[in-house]
Amino acid sequence: RSLWVDPEAQTRLAAIRDERGRVVRLAGDFPAMQWQRVPWYANGTWNLWLAGAALFAMTCVLWAAALRFVQRKRMPQQSALAMQRLRMVQIWTAALWIAIVIGLVTLTSALSGDETFPPSHRFDTVFLVLNIAVVIAMALSAGTVLRTLGLWRALPAGIWVRLRAAAIALSAVFLIWFSMYWKLIGPVSRF
Q: Is 70 exceeded by the pLDDT of residue 189?
């Protein structure tokens, strides 16, 4: 019951059980790869949806900044300084996260060449630059959260401004967790 064999392809799939007899992992013919259930917070579907939503929020920050620059809108004087401080850290955080995603996509697409396929000096260089960028983005994200909390009372009255600030802060928290959990930072030898 714990081993399945495809007679035509001669491939195997084995169930690995715990001490109670429950299946905890599946193993195939390739010994370096096994499948196991993950906790809800490690579910790839949820993580990709949440990462997409967080990156969408960061893109909206950049879009709003570009619109403000073009339109040159001014906030009322009592809230201008608080909003300006909050927006600056949000813009830098968003720009860096978007740049990291572009860098990861570029790195992934470049891995097919002999010069960039790991282990190589070029791969290590690009990976180190991405590591530094992720650490800076995580620090800016933490700054966004702290700045949001610190300026919460000084924000203009109205639910939309506070909702937007909270959504950006939560996106920043998620991106910090995502980077740490999925190991976007760390030594090259992990990959």
A: no
